[in-house]
Amino acid sequence: MLVKVFVMETCPDCTQVKAQLRDNPQFQLIDIGEHVRNLKDFIRLRDHSAAFDAAKAKGALGIPCFLLPDGTVRFSMDDVVIEETPDGAACSLDGSGC
With contact defined as beta carbons under 8 Å apart, do 41 and 17 qualify? Predict the structure, then answer.
């Protein structure tokens, strides 16, 4: 499963994250300024996740934001751990074993 990374083209804190993850298939970069759908998805997450409370208290937007497959929100790449799939491992055709 992919880690969704909410970023914005004009966000200086997002520049390094975007450069590091651009070609990494384990991350889906979502620019919230690119389309209103992306912005709505981010606002929905921000409005309903307590993880953003500190950012909101400081008047910050809360990007870059890493949304892990289990719903956990992180704000630093250092806090995101991606499990590598061993060579030769694959999901079963019935969807189990992934």
Answer: no
Domains defined along the chain, listed by start:
3-79 (3.40.30)
- Residue 88: pLDDT over 80: no
User: What is the rounded distance in angstroms from the CA atom of residue 36 to the CA atom of residue 38?
Assistant: 5
Residue 98's pLDDT band (boundaries 50, 70, 90)? very low
Q: Parallel, antiparallel, or unpaired: how do β-strands 73-74 and 27-31 relate?
A: unpaired
52 touches 60 (CB < 8 A): no
DSSP track, the chain: -PEEEEE-TT-TTHHHHHHHHTT-TTEEEEETTT-HHHHHHHHHHHHH-GGGHHHHHTT----SEEE-TTS-EES-GGG---PPPPTT----TTS---
The pTM for the full model equals: 0.80
Supply angle C-alpha 8, 11, 15, rounded to 5.
90
